[in-house]
Amino acid sequence: MPAATPRPEFVSFLSDYGYADEFVGVCKSVILSIAPHLQIIDVSHNIPAHDVRAGALTLVRAAQYLPVGIILAVVDPGVGTDRRAIAVQTESCILIGPDNGILAPTVAILGGALSAVSITNPDYLLESAGPTFSGRDVFAPAAGFIASGVALGDLGESIDPASLTPGMLPIADTEGEEIRCEIWWIDSFGNAQLNIGPESLAERGLVVGDQIEVKIRDNAGMLRWVHTYADAKPSEFALVVDSYGLCSLVLDRRSAAAEHDLRIGTEVRISTPPASVVGVGARTVKEPLVTEVSITRPPGESE
Predict the structure, then answer these.
(1) Which domain does 242 fall in, by range?
(2) Is residue 69 part of a domain?
(3) Do 47 and 179 reside in the same domain of the chain?
(4) Whole-model pTM above 0.85?
């Protein structure tokens, strides 16, 4: 019999359920009915419906600030199919959710998976008239029972962490004359985060205050790299390094996404400026480069 896990005090909960329906409240009620001592942190429930990648990116951005405990992530377009429901043990947290890649980036930044199980034991599931609400019937009970001291291995059969679905995240191409990156998040203020950090600009000799040539779809223009939003002039389309350490396209106190028709997945090409170029606009481009995010530990690293 596996040893019982220490009792977590927090569940950090992310989903695409929104707040129009009862789904979030029902899941939280199920968790608390099993483990009333828990505190539940709502990371976000406004992930676009069925958008696993958006859920994975939101979770990985938040993960370093979440307390030790349980992370529950439910963006599950494959609900009711043979996709696995999983619980993954890392050094600091247990992550629960569908095996569709939503957990993979966060497992990776938490140091990799120590172990994983497929949640199948009927003793720890809710009975249901249909298979379309795994958040209530599978994942929420799993979180509650783990928080009550049930061992991970009691939830179901052990599975090889290497068999879990990896996360597919876009990576920038920084090898050519241009940096080819993409917008992978637009926040509620309309700031468009790119999948590059300032080191990619610094490698080309660029520093804060410099002009940068940017091509978005069929249009090219000049942006200034500024320290913060207020350093941009009124109506100036600018680039900042945001609070996550990534480059973002911004307008001060306005929506860069709305005014420049920026969308998640839009390719952005960046280079050092030749001389003078015209203003910037927008429209869609090539398939993004992607990489698999492994959720297993690197070879040779101890558990």
Answers:
(1) 170-290
(2) yes
(3) no
(4) no
